[in-house]
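Lecture 7 notes: from sequence to structure.
We start with the chain below.
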Amino acid sequence: MRQRSLIAITAALSAGALTLTACGSRDSDDKGSDSGGTTVTIGVDAPLTGDLSALGLGIKNSVDLAAKTANKKKYVDGVTFKIEALDDQAQPSSGQQNATKLVADKSVLGVVGPLNSSVAESMQKVFDDAKLVEVSPANTNPALTQGTDWQNSKKRVYPSYFRTATTDAIQGPFAAQYLFNDAKKKKVFVIDDKKTYGAGLAATFTAEFKKLGGAVAGTEHINPDSKDFSAIATKVKNSGADVVYYGGEYPQAGPLSKQIKAAGAKIPVVGGDGIYSADFIKLAGASAVGDLATSVGAPVEELPSAKEFVANYKTENYKEAYEAYGGYSYDSAWAIIEAVKKVVDDNDGKLPDDARAKVTAAMQNVSFDGVTGKVAFDEFGDATNKQLTVYAVENGTWKSVKSGTYTG
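Predicted structure tokens for the same chain:
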């Protein structure tokens, strides 16, 4: 998604809980002398506390599972993987601090995350300067891979940045096509939270909806720190809109939906992957029935390629669900593992001195059948898998309605 820190003490505490090795815990700079191998750390940056922690913990756990799986399989000969998970609380400043901390740990050869596009903006240069590869399972803002002028002239700025999620250049228009063509909605009220992810998603949606012939009944911006949206709800009711599109995340989208219905506008609230969480339904309450969300890829539970992931995740007894980005997080971590394997295999079974740079270079050509389908990257570092799914709230849960790709 996204744009989603904490002081150094909190980050350190978050990191300390997740040491994974085949032979027990060890410090991050330990070369694994007791097993004759090398320990490689995969960093994780995500909101592990705060409003978006449901998504962040799903990311962390899924990377944890990938590291455990690689160790059980002895997938990279002589290498034991562990993870170091840091909490960014969906704050760019904390994300940048975490990036600096991960760069300083020489055993870190790749990082999964972050969740939020605004956080990614603060981290990209730090990682790129260190030639440390970063693979996000959730960032969807097109500018992260294609430059700020991506609509007119695409230009890759940071060669170390990749993502397994597709972008809002596709997600917003995909939602617009579904609402206009399938749901027959013709008049939309557009709201966003003014953040990188939300505003960008709302903009791409609006452009496509108008292109299709739809009308925009009104636009508003919310304060993401607020939970009182009654004034906007009244404007929506008076606008005559037959649908609301919200660019933002579930902590605000849930109360917004509830208040719009309470104001008398019995119309669906629709958003992107930022609202696709069970917590949205909890916050929106019973009136959320019929609300819609788009999310990257196809439902993990329905993919034959994801059966092993779902079963193994359950076996590990993680306290939290893998949520919307579990499969993508596992695939992001596995992409790093594949790149490490390539570098080790090309260097007579050991890591070279310039391992970070070589892992980053190897990532460009990584290709494998992952949890979410075929995992590979284009010339910008974007996922080649462009599939998206529309979900609707039914009987207190999200149900898939339609999967496909944007046809622009």
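Points to note: The CA atoms of residues 147 and 153 lie 8 Å apart. The chain is about 40% helix and 20% strand.
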